[in-house]
Structure formats: C-alpha cells, structure tokens
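Sample intake — RNA ligase 1
Collected from: Chanos chanos
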Amino acid sequence: MRRLGSVQQKIPCVFLTEVRDEPSRKRECQLFQVVATENLNPIALNADVYSALATEKVDGTCCYVTTYKGEPYLWARLDRKPTKQADKRFKKYQYSQKSTKGFTWNVDEDFRAVPDSWIPAHGVQHQNGQPVPDEHGHIPGWVPVDNENKQYCWHASVVNYEAGEALVLRPHPEDEDLLEIINVPLSELMEQTLELIGTNVNGNPYSLGSKKHLIHLLVPHGVLRIRNAPLVEYQALHSWFQGCHEGRVEGIVWHCNDGTLVKVHRHHLGLKWPNGATVLATRPVVIHVEKSDNDSKDSQKSLFTVLSRFSGQHFNCIQDIQFEA
C-alpha cells in the first residue's frame, strides 16, 4: 500500500475557483476572496477523484521529516515570500486580471532572503538554476527545526533528537474510532509530511492544552480518514459541512490513486471555520508515551515527560487532557 499524504506544495481545490470582490473570510486585510465554483477541477477529474480516499484536512502548520546533518530531523514549512513591494505589485495584478497568469517575477530582487539551511519543496520548478514561484507567489520550502530557534519552539516541543522521537496523534491501530498519542521514532516518519497542531497554533481549534500547560502534537497527513464521505459535488459537500457532525472539519483532502492530492476548504464554500466543537476535539484518546532511558533533554517540564505520566490512560476527548498545576 502506498504511503499517503506527502504535502510538499499547495494543494489545488477540487473545484475550479474564482476571485470575488469581497473581503476574504480566511485572510485579514485581503480585499478579495477565492471561492469555489460548482465546476470540478480538470486536475481532479483526470485523477479520478470519485475513487479517491477522503481524509480530514487538519488545521495546523505543515512539517516534514527528512535528513539533516546525517540524522532524521523535523523541518518546518518556510515559503520564500516576495518583498512587500513585489507582493503589492503581484496582488494588484491578480486583482485587476482576476488571475496570476502572465505575471513576471525577478527572483533575485523580488524575494526575501531565507536561511542557508533552507531547501525548496519537492516538485518546485527551476529555471536557470533558481526555484520558480508558484501561482500564489510563494516558493514552498523547508528549514530544519533547531531547539535553539525560538521561532520554532512549538515545533521543537514535539521532537526529542537525543532519543530520536516525535510526539504523534493518530488513530489507534486496533480501533480507528480511538485516537492515540504516542512517541514514534523519527526514522519511521522519514519523508512524510505532518501537521503540527496545538495550543499556540492557528488559534487552537482543537482545544489542546491551555495557556498554562501547552500541548502540541504532530498529525501525519492522510491518517484521519473520512468514512461515509459525501459525494464530490458542490451542494452535497456544502450540506455535509453544514449538517453532519462528521462535517465539523476544516476541509477534505482527497488522495487519488495516481498520487494527486486535491482539497476543499470550508472557506471555499463560504462557510465559517471553526464553527463549534470540531470532530477531532471530541474523539476519545489514549496516551501511549514511554519515557526514554537515554533521554538527556527530557527534563521534568518536557512534554514527553509530562505525557509519559499519563501513559495508558484513556480520555473521553483530547480537550479533557489537563495537567495538574
């Protein structure tokens, strides 16, 4: 069985989209929004989306596990973005043309600097030896998560490089209705992408932890499968998101048999997110985190250590996991 969920670049919408002259529901200060039409994207049709596997789109920040300095390492998403002036020029063109096709970039001058350790994402096109921006004006890429870099402190809290492990949230292998929090060897996650969720990520729609006791976890892409998924049709999806308990998700990502990924976000359909209790926040969970014997980093305040004290315990939902003061 092929591995699911390698998210290296922006995933296209399952529907063709259009730009409307109204404030974005997703991005503040954006005076236009991209919405889905009722026409399926040819990319989805060509990949036979009707026979694809539907999975929950998780609201976090994308991560990647690959080698750094000869060892398995967690990498954070860092898209190389245009300078303020170049972005203003790009947005003006997009607004006037209702498209980004035909816009010309000067990669040397139009884009901000990135760390020397930065690498472009798989699939980024190159021209004259330089990576080419995508249709959103970004160059997708990654930087290694260093324990000393405060910018990635939430990423760092879910990895223990001394023990070579990461904290993962996934369905229990013997009961798909039950979630488990487990420490997984980074070597087993090699070349996978995952979503970092938690207390200080994207407003914490899953109610993980608290301001006093932070919880952050990695969710491998593609593991949260949607059973009895709705038809891949605009009105059916709209009704499912609005009327079903299972529809209380940020969106759906379809994994097609040829490896193509397509998605739909609630915002594509003009729907609010989050909107009440999310499905992920209400699922039961068990903790299986074992403390490592050769762990020099794992202090008493480490998330690994704290969760290990609850190992074997079941909770009605992940938001019920609360640490003692």
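Post-analysis note: The chain has a mean pLDDT of 90.
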